[in-house]
Design a protein that fits this description.
Belongs to the peptidase M20C family. This protein has two domains: about 260 residues, Aminopeptidase; about 210 residues, Alpha-Beta Plaits (2-Layer Sandwich). It has eleven helices and 25 strands.
Length: about 475
Amino acid sequence: MSQDIRNLEPLPLWNHFADLNAVPRPSKKEERVIAFMKQFGENLGLQTLVDEVGNVIIKKPATLGMENRKPIVLQSHLDMVHQKNNDTVFDFDTQGIEMYVDGDWVRANGTTLGADNGIGVATIMAILASNEIQHPAIEALFTIDEETGMTGAMGLKGGLLEGEILLNLDTEEDDEIDIGCAGGVDVTAHAEYDEEDTPDGSVAYNITVKGLKGGHSGMDIHKGLGNANKIMNRLLFNGFDSFGLQISTINGGSLRNAIPRESVAEVIIAKVYDEAFVFDMQQIVNEIKTELATMEPNLEIIFEKKDSLPAKVMPPVAQYYLVRALYTAHNGVYRMSADFEDLVETSNNIAKVTVGNGKLQVQCLTRSSVESSKFDLANALRSAFELMGCEVEFSGSYPGWTPNPNSSILKVLDELYEKQNGKKANVVACHAGLECGILGTNYPDMEMISFGPTIRGAHSPEERVSISSVQKYWNFVLEILKNIPVK
């Protein structure tokens, strides 16, 4: 890791971020970072506890003269999305993130950076460790598993926290103050099929879709980015209809909350169609690249003939229904909000498609700020996949966070932002899934607000955080702590 990171201002924040990024912390595997954070709190001599699901809570009394202010909760999540480029050799389970400075940005070498939500975590660590920062009584809440189910927030019991105001440090535009977010539900379709022997007189190809930008399946869903699973299905649909292409395996995408950047399929066709297949598919490739040229200039679609044939393939009838169901299944923006300008209300990400060994599975993440609309789209997806014979499950549903434009803490942040920057902040609701809505279930009287520094490319290897924005955000945090209302 570059020492340059530790020399950035503000020094306490960046040094804690570097310490944190040395600890592997994938979602669902947070044991090491939980232990790291628990040790951090105990080393400071602060009251530290780990709840029954793994959330870490560290309590710090108010500084002198701030005892009459409302107690606050500073909240960020410990886990990070793990994505890497195909040609990057990296083990997220054992290695720390390799960071470097690139102008005004901090990036990682071929992987996600973990600024989402590591910058928030590091901010809270710097405040807890400081003997100079003025602040009211603080409960630092570090949740787990935000990225793949929000089970940490869901498992946090009422009565553990006494704070009256929650500051969530998990948004990605430094000129925005968030007061609402979307909820989500995981939609999973799966089925089994009887494989058949690969016919004689066949040739095999690997089809690879790669070079897409990827990104956050909530914050970036409206940008018109390519989805590797939809692109791959388009190729397979045309190959099947025109040349009787048969699928052996598909492996596309990875995480539900990341727009899929890559997909690989192993297929066969009859040898007699070989030349025509290559010519025809190249025309389709050119069409796709032309359509996506502006947003996805680095898209690559590669057809590579194999020396050997797969032993088994999907039978034509099963394949007929699969490619049509995937074509039918909605991906991207489903509805824009009628109440907030330019806000996506409801969307879906076809995140992961796997086929092989007689089994198929499609994983989606459906988001919406309107609960009924969320399940309307989820049921549309369910219908498409049930018509092909799949079993469809809904899981991990979590509520959105209803905006409260009249909250007292919003007034504080709004005024401070304008005073510091000479202009108003954008008060918004976002299409990402923040934990505020879930936490509010057991803490309905707690005022909540969310803000953060500028982060780009979250949930992809292009993730980066602006250094100057972190400085701006840090100064904003310090002013907020000094201006928390009295009890």
